[in-house]
Amino acid sequence: MSEQKNMIAWFEIPVDDISRAKKFYETIFDVEMVTMDMGDEFKMEVFPGDQNSVSGALVYNTEWYSPSNTHGPLVYLNGNPDLQTVQDKIEAAGGKIIIPKRQISPEYGYMAVFEDTEGNRIALHSNN
Known about the structure:
By secondary structure, this protein is α/β, with parallel strands linked by helices. It has two helices and eight strands. The protein has one domain: 2,3-Dihydroxybiphenyl 1,2-Dioxygenase, domain 1. It is 16% helix and 35% strand. α1 packs across α2 (83-90).
C-alpha cells in the first residue's frame, strides 16, 4: 500500500461570481489567492499552498460547477489554531453561519459550518 499524508489532495469550490468569492475567502482567512484565468468560461482562484500541502481553488464554470448549500461534498477547511477567529469574520464578509463552532470530541477538536457568498455549504475544523 502507498503511504498517504492526507486523504484530500485537492478541492474545488464552485462559484457564481469569482471576484465576490475571492474577496470573501481572502477576507475571512486573511490570505491572498492566486488567479488562474483559463478563458471566459473557466476561471480559478487558488488557495495558498505548495507541493507538500493540500490546497484547492474557487472555480467558475457554468457547465460543470454549481454552488449548493445542501448537495455535494462537504469540504472542511483548516481553521487552526482556533476556528472562532475565522467564524467571527464570516457574516461581516457576506456569509452565513449554519452551525456555530462546537466540539466534535476532545480528541478530534472543533467544527463549524457556514454558507459562503456563493451559496456553498463549507465546514471549518480546528484543534481548539
